[in-house]
Amino acid sequence: MMLLKDKVAIITGGARGIGKEIALTFAREGAKVAIADINPQTLKEAEKEIASCGVEALALTVDVTDYTQVGQMVNKTLDKFKKIDILISNAGITADALLVRMKEEDWDRVLAVNLKGTFNCTKAVSRVMIKQRSGKIINIASIIGLIGNVGQANYAASKAGVIGLTKSAARELAPRGINVNAIAPGFIQTEMTQRLPEEVKSKMLEAIPLKKFGQPRDVARLAAFLASDEAGYITGQTICVDGGMV
User: Fold this and answer.
1) pLDDT, mean of each 10-residue run, the chain (246 residues)
2) Is 162 helix (H, G, I), strand (E, B) or coil?
3) pTM of the entire structure?
4) Active-site residue flag, 67
5) Out of 26, 81, 119, 155, which one is annotated catalytic?
6) 3-state class of 1 per DSSP?
7) Cβ count near 108 (within 10 Å)
Protein backbone atom coordinates (compact mmCIF):
# COMPACT_ATOMS: atom_id res chain seq x y z
CA MET A 1 0.00 0.00 0.00
CA MET A 2 1.33 3.43 -0.94
CA LEU A 3 2.03 5.61 2.12
CA LEU A 4 1.30 8.92 0.37
CA LYS A 5 -1.25 8.09 -2.32
CA ASP A 6 -2.91 11.27 -3.69
CA LYS A 7 -1.08 13.52 -1.22
CA VAL A 8 0.43 16.78 -2.50
CA ALA A 9 3.94 17.69 -1.36
CA ILE A 10 6.18 20.73 -1.77
CA ILE A 11 9.89 19.97 -1.44
CA THR A 12 12.39 22.83 -1.39
CA GLY A 13 15.90 22.12 -2.54
CA GLY A 14 14.27 19.28 -4.42
CA ALA A 15 16.45 19.19 -7.52
CA ARG A 16 19.40 17.26 -6.08
CA GLY A 17 20.83 15.46 -3.07
CA ILE A 18 18.57 14.65 -0.15
CA GLY A 19 15.74 16.80 -1.50
CA LYS A 20 15.66 14.98 -4.83
CA GLU A 21 15.72 11.59 -3.11
CA ILE A 22 12.79 12.65 -0.91
CA ALA A 23 10.90 13.82 -4.00
CA LEU A 24 11.49 10.51 -5.80
CA THR A 25 10.54 8.49 -2.72
CA PHE A 26 7.34 10.48 -2.30
CA ALA A 27 6.50 9.97 -5.97
CA ARG A 28 6.98 6.21 -5.64
CA GLU A 29 4.66 6.33 -2.62
CA GLY A 30 1.95 7.95 -4.77
CA ALA A 31 2.34 11.65 -3.94
CA LYS A 32 2.02 14.50 -6.41
CA VAL A 33 5.21 16.51 -6.05
CA ALA A 34 6.15 20.17 -6.49
CA ILE A 35 9.92 20.65 -6.30
CA ALA A 36 11.36 24.10 -5.69
CA ASP A 37 15.00 24.99 -6.28
CA ILE A 38 17.10 27.94 -7.36
CA ASN A 39 18.72 26.15 -10.32
CA PRO A 40 16.34 25.90 -13.34
CA GLN A 41 18.47 23.37 -15.24
CA THR A 42 18.70 20.76 -12.47
CA LEU A 43 15.03 21.40 -11.69
CA LYS A 44 13.90 20.35 -15.15
CA GLU A 45 16.00 17.19 -15.03
CA ALA A 46 14.59 16.27 -11.62
CA GLU A 47 11.04 16.99 -12.78
CA LYS A 48 11.42 14.45 -15.62
CA GLU A 49 12.74 11.81 -13.20
CA ILE A 50 9.82 12.35 -10.81
CA ALA A 51 7.26 12.26 -13.62
CA SER A 52 8.74 8.94 -14.77
CA CYS A 53 7.42 7.46 -11.52
CA GLY A 54 3.92 7.91 -12.92
CA VAL A 55 2.80 10.92 -10.87
CA GLU A 56 2.20 14.59 -11.63
CA ALA A 57 5.18 16.83 -10.99
CA LEU A 58 5.70 20.57 -10.91
CA ALA A 59 9.09 22.35 -11.05
CA LEU A 60 9.35 25.85 -9.60
CA THR A 61 12.36 28.17 -9.58
CA VAL A 62 12.32 29.73 -6.11
CA ASP A 63 14.66 31.68 -3.86
CA VAL A 64 13.38 30.68 -0.40
CA THR A 65 14.88 33.81 1.19
CA ASP A 66 12.29 35.89 -0.71
CA TYR A 67 8.83 35.61 0.87
CA THR A 68 7.15 36.89 -2.31
CA GLN A 69 8.67 34.05 -4.34
CA VAL A 70 7.70 31.55 -1.64
CA GLY A 71 4.11 32.85 -1.78
CA GLN A 72 4.11 32.40 -5.55
CA MET A 73 5.37 28.84 -5.07
CA VAL A 74 2.44 28.09 -2.80
CA ASN A 75 -0.09 29.69 -5.15
CA LYS A 76 1.23 27.82 -8.22
CA THR A 77 1.09 24.54 -6.33
CA LEU A 78 -2.50 25.23 -5.30
CA ASP A 79 -3.42 26.21 -8.86
CA LYS A 80 -2.18 22.87 -10.16
CA PHE A 81 -3.02 20.46 -7.33
CA LYS A 82 -5.79 22.32 -5.37
CA LYS A 83 -4.25 21.48 -1.96
CA ILE A 84 -0.97 21.11 -0.07
CA ASP A 85 -0.67 18.19 2.34
CA ILE A 86 3.07 18.15 2.98
CA LEU A 87 5.94 20.65 3.14
CA ILE A 88 9.55 19.51 3.20
CA SER A 89 11.85 22.47 3.94
CA ASN A 90 15.14 21.12 2.69
CA ALA A 91 16.82 24.02 0.86
CA GLY A 92 20.15 24.74 2.49
CA ILE A 93 23.72 25.89 1.89
CA THR A 94 27.09 25.94 3.63
CA ALA A 95 29.85 28.57 3.65
CA ASP A 96 32.43 27.15 6.05
CA ALA A 97 35.22 29.05 7.82
CA LEU A 98 36.62 29.35 11.30
CA LEU A 99 34.63 31.83 13.38
CA VAL A 100 37.40 34.43 13.53
CA ARG A 101 37.80 34.33 9.74
CA MET A 102 34.13 34.06 8.79
CA LYS A 103 32.89 36.84 6.55
CA GLU A 104 29.76 38.64 7.66
CA GLU A 105 28.16 38.05 4.27
CA ASP A 106 28.70 34.29 4.62
CA TRP A 107 27.08 34.34 8.06
CA ASP A 108 24.11 36.31 6.69
CA ARG A 109 23.72 34.17 3.57
CA VAL A 110 23.69 30.82 5.41
CA LEU A 111 21.21 32.11 8.02
CA ALA A 112 19.04 33.59 5.27
CA VAL A 113 18.74 30.38 3.23
CA ASN A 114 18.70 27.80 6.00
CA LEU A 115 16.70 29.54 8.72
CA LYS A 116 14.79 32.40 7.16
CA GLY A 117 13.97 30.20 4.17
CA THR A 118 12.47 27.59 6.48
CA PHE A 119 10.50 30.30 8.28
CA ASN A 120 9.20 31.72 4.99
CA CYS A 121 8.03 28.33 3.75
CA THR A 122 6.48 27.33 7.07
CA LYS A 123 4.58 30.61 7.33
CA ALA A 124 3.27 30.52 3.76
CA VAL A 125 2.23 26.85 3.75
CA SER A 126 0.77 26.86 7.26
CA ARG A 127 -1.80 29.46 6.13
CA VAL A 128 -3.11 26.86 3.66
CA MET A 129 -2.92 23.96 6.09
CA ILE A 130 -4.75 25.90 8.82
CA LYS A 131 -7.72 26.31 6.45
CA GLN A 132 -7.57 22.61 5.59
CA ARG A 133 -7.14 21.74 9.30
CA SER A 134 -4.52 19.18 8.31
CA GLY A 135 -0.94 18.96 7.12
CA LYS A 136 2.58 17.68 7.72
CA ILE A 137 5.60 19.99 7.86
CA ILE A 138 9.06 18.42 7.97
CA ASN A 139 12.16 20.58 8.31
CA ILE A 140 15.55 19.20 7.38
CA ALA A 141 17.91 20.26 10.16
CA SER A 142 21.30 18.66 10.92
CA ILE A 143 23.12 17.03 13.79
CA ILE A 144 25.49 20.02 13.52
CA GLY A 145 22.64 22.08 14.96
CA LEU A 146 22.74 19.80 18.01
CA ILE A 147 26.47 19.31 18.57
CA GLY A 148 28.20 22.13 16.65
CA ASN A 149 31.25 21.73 14.43
CA VAL A 150 34.57 23.45 13.89
CA GLY A 151 34.35 25.85 10.96
CA GLN A 152 30.56 25.75 10.78
CA ALA A 153 29.33 28.32 13.30
CA ASN A 154 26.93 29.81 10.76
CA TYR A 155 25.59 26.44 9.64
CA ALA A 156 25.26 25.18 13.22
CA ALA A 157 23.42 28.33 14.28
CA SER A 158 21.05 28.11 11.32
CA LYS A 159 20.20 24.45 11.94
CA ALA A 160 19.82 24.96 15.71
CA GLY A 161 17.40 27.73 14.77
CA VAL A 162 15.47 25.35 12.53
CA ILE A 163 15.08 22.95 15.46
CA GLY A 164 13.77 25.73 17.71
CA LEU A 165 11.41 26.92 14.97
CA THR A 166 10.14 23.37 14.54
CA LYS A 167 9.31 23.00 18.24
CA SER A 168 7.50 26.35 18.41
CA ALA A 169 5.57 25.80 15.17
CA ALA A 170 4.53 22.34 16.35
CA ARG A 171 2.95 23.84 19.48
CA GLU A 172 1.21 26.62 17.55
CA LEU A 173 -0.16 24.45 14.75
CA ALA A 174 -1.10 21.27 16.64
CA PRO A 175 -4.62 22.55 17.50
CA ARG A 176 -5.27 22.83 13.74
CA GLY A 177 -4.30 19.24 13.03
CA ILE A 178 -0.84 20.05 11.65
CA ASN A 179 2.24 18.02 12.59
CA VAL A 180 5.64 19.72 12.52
CA ASN A 181 8.84 17.70 12.91
CA ALA A 182 12.52 17.95 12.03
CA ILE A 183 14.99 15.42 10.68
CA ALA A 184 18.64 15.88 11.65
CA PRO A 185 20.85 14.00 9.19
CA GLY A 186 24.42 13.11 10.07
CA PHE A 187 27.03 12.42 7.41
CA ILE A 188 24.96 11.63 4.31
CA GLN A 189 26.72 11.00 1.01
CA THR A 190 25.69 13.83 -1.31
CA GLU A 191 27.42 16.26 -3.69
CA MET A 192 27.87 18.64 -0.75
CA THR A 193 29.69 16.11 1.44
CA GLN A 194 31.70 14.65 -1.45
CA ARG A 195 33.57 17.97 -1.66
CA LEU A 196 35.03 17.50 1.84
CA PRO A 197 38.72 16.54 2.10
CA GLU A 198 39.44 12.83 2.58
CA GLU A 199 41.02 13.38 6.01
CA VAL A 200 37.81 15.04 7.19
CA LYS A 201 35.75 12.12 5.90
CA SER A 202 38.04 9.66 7.71
CA LYS A 203 37.62 11.50 11.01
CA MET A 204 33.86 11.60 10.52
CA LEU A 205 33.75 7.85 9.84
CA GLU A 206 35.63 7.17 13.10
CA ALA A 207 32.96 9.10 15.01
CA ILE A 208 30.07 7.05 13.59
CA PRO A 209 29.25 3.96 15.71
CA LEU A 210 27.76 2.14 12.71
CA LYS A 211 31.03 2.77 10.83
CA LYS A 212 29.39 3.78 7.58
CA PHE A 213 28.05 6.91 5.95
CA GLY A 214 24.34 7.40 5.38
CA GLN A 215 22.59 7.52 2.03
CA PRO A 216 19.94 10.05 0.94
CA ARG A 217 17.36 7.24 0.97
CA ASP A 218 17.89 6.84 4.74
CA VAL A 219 16.54 10.36 5.23
CA ALA A 220 13.90 10.00 2.52
CA ARG A 221 12.30 6.92 4.05
CA LEU A 222 11.92 8.64 7.42
CA ALA A 223 10.47 11.71 5.71
CA ALA A 224 7.89 9.53 3.95
CA PHE A 225 6.85 7.97 7.26
CA LEU A 226 6.58 11.33 9.05
CA ALA A 227 4.56 12.72 6.13
CA SER A 228 2.13 9.80 6.22
CA ASP A 229 -1.00 9.22 8.27
CA GLU A 230 0.96 6.54 10.17
CA ALA A 231 2.83 9.31 12.03
CA GLY A 232 -0.27 11.19 13.14
CA TYR A 233 0.71 11.31 16.83
CA ILE A 234 4.28 12.52 16.30
CA THR A 235 4.93 16.27 16.43
CA GLY A 236 7.57 18.65 17.75
CA GLN A 237 10.32 16.04 17.41
CA THR A 238 13.85 16.16 16.02
CA ILE A 239 14.90 12.71 14.80
CA CYS A 240 18.55 12.03 14.05
CA VAL A 241 19.56 9.92 11.05
CA ASP A 242 23.24 9.71 11.87
CA GLY A 243 24.42 6.14 12.49
CA GLY A 244 24.60 6.88 16.20
CA MET A 245 26.86 9.98 16.13
CA VAL A 246 24.75 12.04 18.55
Assistant:
1) 95 96 98 97 95 96 98 98 98 96 98 98 98 98 96 98 98 98 95 77 90 96 98 98 96
2) helix
3) 0.96
4) no
5) 155
6) coil
7) 14
